Amino acid sequence: MKKIIIALIIIIMTSSSVLAETVVYNPNSKIYHKIYCHSAKICKVCIKIDKQEAIRRGGRACKRCGG
Questions:
Q1: Which residues pair with 22 in a beta bridge?
Q2: Conformation bin of residue 58: beta by default, left when phi > 0, alpha when psi is -120 to 50
Q3: pLDDT digits (tens, 9 = 90+) for 5-64
Q4: Fewest beta carbons within 10 Å, which of 12, 25, 34, 46?
Q5: Measured between alpha carbons, how far is 37 from 66 in angstroms, rounded to an integer?
């Protein structure tokens, strides 16, 4: 029983990292973009971070690409 519980915990922990999505975040405007967004490509101050981190920092999705 212990082995099953440990295996389930490991599966849950590894699957959550697979769902992580990298976005391009502008710390000045607090807008995050998908990697392929035109606005992200021309941004000078943007950084690549996890989408959940961008949201935690108060970010909102781009209106063009939906973040």
A1: 50
A2: left
A3: 776 677 666 555 556 899 999 999 999 999 999 999 999 999 999 999 999 999 999 999
A4: 12
A5: 9
Q: Can you give 2-49 as a three-state secondary structure string?
A: HHHHHHHHHHHHHHHHHCCCEEEEECCCCEEECCCCHHHHHCCCCEEE
How far apart are the C-alpha atoms of 25 and 22, rounded to whole Å?
9
Question: Structure tokens of 45?
Answer: 């101050």
Cα–Cα distance measured from residue 9 to residue 35, given in angstroms and rounded to the nearest whole number:
31
What are residue 34's phi and psi, to 5 degrees?
Answer: -75, 160
